[in-house]
Design brief:
Blueprint: H1 2-10, H2 17-25, E1 32-34, E2 37-41, E3 47-51, E4 58-59, E5 62-63, E6 72-73, E7 79-80, H3 93-114, E8 132-134, E9 139-145, H4 159-176, H5 188-192, E10 195-206, E11 215-225, E12 229-238, E13 244-256, E14 262-263, H6 267-273, E15 301-306, H7 321-328, H8 334-339, E16 340-349, E17 359-367, E18 373-381, E19 386-396
Antiparallel strand pairs: 1-2, 2-3, 4-5, 6-7, 8-9, 9-11, 10-13, 10-16, 11-12, 12-13, 13-14, 15-17, 16-19, 17-18, 18-19
Helix pairs in contact: 4-7
Enzyme class: hydrolase
InterPro entries: Acyl-ACP-thioesterase_N, Acyl-ACP_TE_C, Acyl-ACP_thioesterase_NHD, FATA/B, HotDog_dom_sf
GO cellular component, one term: chloroplast
Length: about 425
């Protein structure tokens, strides 16, 4: 029965000639219902035919207009449908095509909604995540996308951008470990004793600077350094190729936030951070050469009147250490900046400075007879107090880099 109903929806049943003749013979002055058509005799004696009122069908919200069936009249003026043939027994293809089109449009819409995945493999990296702990909880890893405002005149990321990435991963490492309470990396026990971390020495080697749109992967970890110090290392790679871009190693000590004096590491603090220490050698071999103290007679270039802005202060109310790097480069000669790029630097932080400080930047250039250039730097207050000593090395731009990466923890190599 179901098959019969389905078939009749496309192939209507043709009435037999006998039934048609019998209906014509019974037509009279009254009204009669003939296959869904209501007929009655008008006052003029003519026969009128009216179809039962039906709303036009809709497909996918759109009205479908079907062509009217062809109607004939006999000699008595009675309307009747023509006899069914093979042609007019075919289904209404317009409705069938409309239904098929609706199904395809719905499928295409669903496919477009689901097909959101990026096509390029490098776009699968999430550059905005806070990072994650790897290698048994000892190494913190975070990705950074190089923004257009982080590149300089050479169309590469500036050294300040690289240093900001190092600082950001250090703080996120402490936060991910659950030790960050207040200040820059202060643990709970450090907060009880008004202690904060300050960097005293840093070595950075840059093999290649990333460019706009590159995504870099920064790994960082901490190790013990003497009795009262902590060493933090960083390794920066191109996240797509794995190429090592930058290596950095630093030494940190504790300072009392109230007295601004250096402090020994309390045993309570040591107990908090020792579980996160990694037993590894520095990622950058220590440069044991003594940093030169410059003065007005030995410095070739001097920049004066350097003052910090409010935005240069960190949450501990002293100038962020990355700002010092920008200041020592203020006195670097322009011809070196135009023809060379910074390849490495060694910095010693000797004193903090606040928002009311006025500084001077001194630079001396050493000529070693090669394309490499070495500069000595001193950042001091106007009264002569040393803030930072430094040494930078510069290589010609677009020079090929070859060197020893040094000892790197196994899972980060």
């Amino acid at each position: 029965m179901v098959a019969t109903a389905a078939t009749s929806s496309f192939f209507p049943v043709t009435p037999s000639p006998d039934s048609s003749d019998s209906k014509k013979e019974r037509l009279g002055n009254g009204s009669i219902n003939l296959g869904g058509i209501k007929s009655k005799t008008s006052s003029s004696g003519n026969l009128q035919v009216k179809a039962n009122a039906q709303a036009p069908p809709k497909i996918n919200g759109t009205k479908v207009v079907t062509p009217p069936a062809e109607v004939f009249k006999n000699e008595g003026g009675v309307s009747f449908h023509p006899p069914r043939t093979f042609i007019n027994q075919l289904p209404d293809w317009s409705m069938l095509l409309a239904a098929i089109t609706t199904v395809f449009l719905a499928a295409e819409k669903q496919w477009m909604m689901l097909d959101w995945k990026p096509k390029r493999p490098d776009m699968l990296i999430d550059p905005f995540g806070i990072g994650k702990i790897v290698q048994d909880g000892l190494v913190f890893r975070q990705n950074f996308s190089i923004r257009s405002y982080e590149i300089g005149a050479d169309q590469t990321a500036s050294i300040e951008t690289v240093m900001n990435h190092l600082q950001e991963t250090a703080l996120n490492h402490v936060r991910s470990a659950g030790l960050l309470v207040d200040g820059f990396g202060s643990t709970p026990e450090m907060c009880k004793k008004n202690l904060i971390w300050v960097v005293t020495r840093m070595q950075v080697v840059v093999d290649r600077y990333p460019t706009w749109g590159n995504v870099v992967q920064v790994d960082t970890w901490v190790s013990a350094s003497g009795k009262n110090c902590m060493r933090r290392d960083w390794l920066v790679r191109d996240s797509k190729t794995g190429e090592v871009l930058t290596r950095a190693s630093s030494i940190w000590v504790m300072m009392n936030k109230v007295t601004r004096r250096l402090s020994k590491m309390p045993e309570e603090v040591r107990g908090e951070i020792e579980p996160y220490f990694m037993n590894s050698e520095p990622v950058v071999a220590e440069d044991g050469r003594k940093l030169v103290k410059l003065d007005d007679s030995s410095a070739e270039f001097v920049g004066k009147g350097l003052t910090p802005r409010w935005s240069d202060l960190d949450v501990n109310q002293h100038v962020n250490n990355v700002k010092y790097i920008g200041w020592i480069l203020e006195s670097a000669p322009l011809p070196i900046l135009e023809t060379h790029e910074l390849s490495s630097m060694t910095l010693e932080y000797r004193r903090e400075c606040g928002r009311d400080s006025v500084l001077q930047s001194l630079t001396a250039v050493s000529d070693n007879g090669t394309d490499e250039i070495e500069c000595q730097h001193l950042l001091r207050l106007e009264d002569g107090s040393e803030v930072m000593r430094g040494r930078t090395q510069w290589r010609p731009k677009n020079a090929k880099i070859s060197g020893n990466v040094g000892q790197i923890p196994a899972d980060t190599a």
